[in-house]
Amino acid sequence: MNIIFLGPPGAGKGTQSKLLEERYGLVQISTGDMLRAEVARGSETGQQAKSLMETGRLVPDDLIIKMLESRIAQPDCAKGFILDGFPRTTGQAEALDAMLKASNKHIDVVLFLDVDEDILADRISGRFTCAKCGATYNEVSNPPKQDGVCDSCGSHEFKRRADDKRETVVERLKEYRKLTAPILPFYEKTGRLHAINGMLPTSEVTAQIETVMAGQ
Ligand code: ADP
Ligand code: ADP
Ligand code: ZN
């Protein structure tokens, strides 16, 4: 089973992908996480992406498509994958279809996490992650069970993303509206798009997703 998560920044794509990954034995592919790893390594890709990411702009299609193509060719993706943060432009959606067709794969489900813009800024500015295992938390809606201790791995170290500042969120939302929202009809046309109310608590969002998955 191959899945795409669509939705604006802060909609809950990463949170839900991680849950699905465990439940259905799929591999989560987050292009944002991959790019942040490249930036941290100081690779050529990282150098090209860094300033764009810091200002909330999308990185160029050719760079991201190349990165994604080599990732889904890896053997662990054969059991099925969850795309989190890709595709984000019509060019990426078309390139994805072409690369999947060439390797006899296809996308089964597109899950669109629908969240009103006015709550995204608060979600994003309250976001932090475990520095060791990457589990995502929120100061208000989703704190660790024990203050300062990661639920998943017990680590005491957390970090925040450089682009989770309020000024940058405005730019990211603009990019989403201009470049990413227009790909929704592309998937709607083929009957693969399922809209999920992403404004409910995390467990209720998961329950809606499970209902869609049960129908597959
Ligand atoms: P995305 O990957 O779409 O940017 P995340 O999964 O990182 O989104 O979630 C953004 C922030 O919102 C995180 O702090 C996360 O803990 C929180 N969050 C995720 N899902 C929900 C939800 N259903 N209700 C409230 N907060 C949520
Ligand atoms: P979000 O929480 O906004 O969904 P991501 O972690 O998916 O964040 O992405 C962070 C940044 O990485 C984006 O603002 C963009 O600069 C870059 N990025 C991630 N995925 C893509 C993509 N598919 N195409 C272009 N840029 C991307
Ligand atoms: Zn952890």
TrEMBL record:
Subunit structure: Monomer.
Protein name: Adenylate kinase
Keywords assigned by UniProt, alphabetized: ATP-binding, Cytoplasm, Kinase, Metal-binding, Nucleotide biosynthesis, Nucleotide-binding, Transferase, Zinc
Organism, scientific name: Acetobacter cibinongensis
Binding site for Zn(2+): C130, C133, C150, C153
Any Pfam family hit: ADK
GO cellular component, one term: cytoplasm
Function statement: Catalyzes the reversible transfer of the terminal phosphate group between ATP and AMP. Plays an important role in cellular energy homeostasis and in adenine nucleotide metabolism.
Pathway assigned to this chain's UniProt record: Purine metabolism; AMP biosynthesis via salvage pathway; AMP from ADP: step 1/1
Compartmental location: Cytoplasm
